[in-house]
Amino acid sequence: MKNPAKSIRSHCRSGFNLTWVLILALGMGFYSELQGDEGLPLLGENAAINIEQERQIGAQFYRHLVARGLVVTSPILHQYLNELGARLLSGIENRVRDYTFFIVKDMGVNAFAVPGGFIGVNIGLITRAQNQHQLASVLAHEIAHVRLRHSLEQMQKSNSVGTAAMLSLLAGLVLGSYNSELGSALIFGSAAGSQQAMINFTRENEYEADRLGIELLRNGNFDTQGMVDFFKLMQRIAGSSEFQNIEYLRTHPVHANRIAEAQSRVTLMANSKLDPDYFLMFRDYLEYFSSDRPVQLGSSFRKALGQMKVGQFELADQTLRRLYQMDSENIWYGYAFAENLEYLNQLDQAEQVYRELLEIFPDELAFSLRLIRLLKSASEFESALVIARRLEKRYPYNKNVYIELAGIYGQLNRPVFRMLAEAEYHRLAGNPRLAIKLYNSVIDSADTDLATQSRARAKLAEISTSE
Question: Are residues 220 and 324 both part of a single domain?
């Protein structure tokens, strides 16, 4: 079985090509899509951008990143990051935004938030963090920027910032980690006013976001000291020749006064018993999934992942089997063990491990998707459908679920439901025209019952409302 980790590593080696891919995406496709949307006002003409318009801005930007292969799509990695985010969001009352946390395929040390609650963290930043509390502090800080609408306010400082300038600002936030001079030019060249004024505005925002971020950490049951520790870590590596131009420090400047204020707030907060920290396993799996570098040192788990990376599946099996037997409730041990069993073509054993894990973590997305694919490979399509339908109810906005449903319905010769699943996939993937065409095909089909027609019409109405 092919090792899927190898397929993304080439994207992480150099940011140069990614920079120009994003420039073309933003300068051509992204701008033209938003330019034609009359419901999206120019920022300078209407400062009161509502939550839905904000979401559309961020969603378009995120979809372009995904479409160009710049986002890590591993379900288990995505899930871990979003579970950290969910803990931070749990303390926000009357929340009006949904948030999406994602990993960017770049080794630069950076994180960013764009309007609408889309928060990206580079692989390079994650690999520098030392525990879940430090990573959570970065997410908390970016959530604060979104809640306080700092990026929108920064763009609205000019009386003439419109859609093109807004897109340029968003590009600068991301592209700075690939090419610092280009990122700075895009950010500071896209709005009127002096560069110094924007820097001062950013510093004020940073203090404000730190204060709210610490509150989010405390409410999410994280160690609030993680924010201060991460600041100090950034200060230390800033002097390293390997990290001379850290994009995160350019957009989030760290200095003694900022650290002192954060420390003073941290010391006033007492944390309750902290949750188990699986961060190191998450970080090790991320490195295995995204890097070609050989693993020489580290934990037994890390070494086993390194053996998987170079195709030494028998050696990896010895370690992963032992780790799983020692701690069968550890999702990272179980997931890597079952994945390695697939590479060894021991598919029955892999299925058993996935089912054991799903007994502990019912309908967990990463395990369920792997099990569905195993069942499909064994032509057990009805069994796969049962699991996929449960996922559809629990994760109605996850397009990976609809990919699997479409494939299963195709194999079961149920074309109406296949078209319906494909339409849902395209709707979630940002292809509304294709989704509309498929929904209409479902409605017009002689094989469609009244309930399915009603469902398709409801989806068409949702698309019409959102446009």
Answer: no
CA angle 228, 114, 129 (to 5 degrees): 30
Q: In Å, how far from its chain's centre is CA 98? A: 13
Mention every residue, 6+ apart, whose C-beta is less than 8 A from residue 18.
11, 68, 70, 105, 106, 178
Residues 210 and 302 in one domain: no
* Cβ neighbours for 44, distance < 8 A, ≥ 6 positions apart: 156, 158, 159, 160, 161, 162
What does the pLDDT look like over 372-429, one tens digit per residue? Answer: 999 999 999 999 999 999 999 999 989 999 999 999 999 999 999 999 999 999 998 8
Range of the domain at 191: 6-266
Tens of pLDDT, residue by residue over 93-110, are 878 888 999 999 988 888
pLDDT bin (cut points 50, 70, 90) of residue 257 is low
- Domain at 323, CATH number: 1.25.40
Domain identity same for 215 and 177: yes
Domain count within the chain = 3
Q: Which two tokens stand for residue 30?
A: 């992204």
Helix (H) or strand (E) holding 67: helix 51-67
> Is the pTM of the predicted complex or chain greater than 0.85?
no
Token pair, residue 313, equals 């599946």
- 221 lies in the same domain as 352: no
CB atoms within 10 A of CB 46: 12
